[in-house]
Design a protein that fits this description.
This protein has about 200 residues and is α/β, with parallel strands linked by helices. Helices cover about 35% and strands about 30% of the residues. It has one domain: Fe-S hydro-lyase, tartrate dehydratase beta-type, catalytic domain (fumarase), CATH 3.20.130.10. Helix 2 packs across helix 3. The radius of gyration is 17 Å and the shape is globular. About 35% of the residues are buried. This is Hydro-lyase, Fe-S type, tartrate/fumarate subfamily, beta subunit. It is an enzyme of class 4 (lyase). Its EC number is 4.2.1.2.
Length: about 200
């Protein structure tokens, strides 16, 4: 199925299945490992975040931005390998209440349980399409922790329109395209080895 979703919520996540194609509109936030750690630390210390991630979408990306006067524009925004966040994503999900993660390469299969429990979906962004995805950004609304973390690690608040195509690669029903592919590869490998 193909969906065009504005301001994705948990109710949207529940209907999505592995293989669905998604185009997102509304607000998304970039967050790589340093931003994850900063946000986790702030929430644990009862510090108020300068943005609301409840039912929000995070994008594992380190964008290239250009400042024109007092406004930022996005030059390039390709996905970062999400496995970098494997060991902190569960805690991040529990503390923030996000509904979706956009990234590249999937995440460890142990997170499927967390995705199911908290109604979170993982969407794969196509690699090599950083400039194309930048065209889907209608406005750089704000940037947080820029001086502290630097451009690629800062949290960028973005307004997007038809951001995609994104593929549902890990859904909130315990399914993963990566596990399916790995299973097929292992079966093929066994077959090949048996013929040698």
């Amino acid at each position: 199925m193909e969906y065009r979703i504005k301001n994705m919520r948990k109710s949207d996540v529940k209907k999505l299945k592995v293989g669905d194609v998604i185009y997102l509109s509304g607000k998304i936030y970039t967050a790589r490992d340093e931003a994850h750690l900063k946000i986790i630390e702030m929430v644990k210390n009862n510090e108020e975040l300068p943005f609301d991630l409840k039912e929000g979408i995070i994008y594992h990306a380190g964008p290239i931005m250009r400042k024109c006067g007092d406004k930022w524009t996005c030059v390039s925004i390709g996905p970062t390998t999400s496995a970098r966040m494997n060991n902190i994503e569960e805690e991040f999900i529990k503390l923030t209440g996000i509904s979706a993660i956009v990234g590249k390469g999937g995440m460890k299969s142990e997170l499927l349980k967390t995705f199911k429990e908290f109604d979170v979906v993982y969407l794969s962004a196509p690699g090599g399409c950083a400039a194309l995805l930048a065209n889907c950004i209608k406005e750089v609304v704000n940037v947080y922790f820029l001086e502290e973390l630097g451009m690629p690690e800062a949290v960028w608040e973005l307004e997007v329109e038809n951001f995609g195509p994104l593929i549902v690669s890990m859904d909130a029903h315990g399914r993963s395209v990566y596990e399916n592919v790995n299973k097929i590869v292992m079966e093929n490998l066994k077959h090949i080895l048996s013929e040698i």
